[in-house]
Amino acid sequence: MRRKIVAGNWKMNLSFTDAEDLINDLLDTLDEEKPTAEVIICPPYPYLELATDYMEENLFKIGAQNISSFDAGAYTGEVSASMLKSMDVTHCIIGHSERRKYFNEDDKMLTAKVNQALAHQLTPIFCVGESLPEREAGKDKEVVRRQVRHGLFHLDTVEFARIIIAYEPVWAIGTGMTATPEQAKDMHAYIRTLIAERYDEKVAEETMILYGGSCNSENATDLFSQEGIDGGLIGGASLKVDEFISICKQASAK
């Protein structure tokens, strides 16, 4: 049975002190509000140990924003899956549109990152989504199909069952634009169709698919109430405690 998930991607924000304050505020508010949705926070690398130190409260899980495609070795600046696992990190965002765009992460590299995460018992949050020109040209589903197939469909059924997919239309990330609930629902349904074709209907039905792209406390209910949307990958709104908790509560209500 699928569960509701809200993952907060802090991106490259906050000082160490600000990160500690945010984590403490989140803990206090989560303990008070007790949303039933699974909560994952994804701070920058330097704050992961700080976050996992607080994870003993069991109010949220910790995800990394990226992962190396290499296992170990002379790869200066890289952070491996085994390093993250040793710090009690449980999840990892892979294939975020900003990594694809600014760091030229291609399908081959992302496949290797997925493999690394699974090999070290990390849960990938695998991101897919189209740009505005691709949507306007009617290529949105073609783009998402390629990303899903190349990034994930080499996995067997058992491995695939450990994947969380995040549909994030690139044109809606950090722009204030948001896919309409109908657009989001349509793409989530399409992704499930692809999964059913590759595996079967049961696997498709059990796969958790999140929406990402300017999701906030004002539109979360409309998005999360759509069939097939299992929560959200939240960007800027995850840096504001009241906003983020509101989103978690709205996800819990669906």
What does this protein look like?
This protein is an alpha/beta fold. It has a single domain, classed as Alpha-Beta Barrel (TIM Barrel). 44% of the residues lie in helices and 15% in strands. The chain is built from 12 helices and 8 strands. It has an 8-stranded parallel barrel, surrounded by 5 helices. Helix 1 packs parallel to helix 12 and helix 5 crosses helix 7. The radius of gyration is 17 Å and the shape is globular. The two termini are 14 Å apart.
Present the secondary structure layout:
Elements: E1 5-9, H1 16-33, E2 38-42, H2 48-54, E3 61-64, H3 81-86, E4 91-94, H4 97-102, H5 107-119, E5 123-128, H6 132-136, H7 140-152, H8 157-160, E6 164-167, H9 181-198, H10 201-206, E7 208-212, H11 220-224, E8 231-234, H12 241-252
Parallel strand pairs: 1-2, 1-8, 2-3, 3-4, 4-5, 5-6, 6-7, 7-8
